[in-house]
Specification:
Length: about 170
């Protein structure tokens, strides 16, 4: 059971996590040391992490969207990894009911979002390349290239049309 003092501290943190402990102490009528100790006690369990909330509009990102995605089972991990690497993806959640992921995305404008969504419509595949003969272009020396795995991308028809100005 969470103590009443802890609930008061959590309430002030939810309102403004950057509030100075001295101000919180005055408002909650608790010593600063008690507030500090209660916060440290709950770190990792009740307080999962310290984050900042950004005003994306002030950063120039005026377009926000929640995108629901469905992919083949074999591609789920790869897609999640790529989404987490994208600077436009704010957060990714695993969901169900016919979809696999919900991604919160931010963009400077609608056109950037369209380009991102067009790229997602394409299909990423991992292909195994066999060992093959190759040539070092600098020395013209023949050599054998080791087998390797490569990622290929087949773009959607809509993206292909946009690239070719149709």
């Amino acid at each position: 059971m969470v103590h009443k003092k802890d609930l008061v501290v959590m309430s002030y943190l939810r309102q403004n996590a950057r509030m100075k402990l001295t101000k919180m102490s005055r408002l909650a009528r608790m010593p600063v040391s008690t507030i500090f100790d209660r916060m440290r006690f709950h770190e990792g369990e009740l307080i999962k992490r310290h984050i900042c909330l950004l005003d994306f509009a002030k950063l120039g990102y005026h377009t926000r969207a929640n995108v629901m995605l469905k992919v083949l089972k074999k591609d789920k991990d790869h897609l999640k990894e790529n989404l987490l690497k994208s600077h436009n993806v704010n957060s990714v959640y695993k969901i169900n009911n016919g979809f696999d992921f919900l991604a919160e995305v931010v963009f400077r404008n609608i056109h950037e979002m369209d380009d991102f969504l067009d790229a997602l419509e394409g299909k990423f595949e991992i292909k195994n390349k066999k060992e093959r003969r190759g040539r070092n272009p600098a020395t013209n020396e023949d050599l054998m290239l080791a087998p390797r795995r490569v990622v290929t991308f087949k773009c959607s028809e809509r993206l292909r049309d946009r690239i070719n100005n149709r």
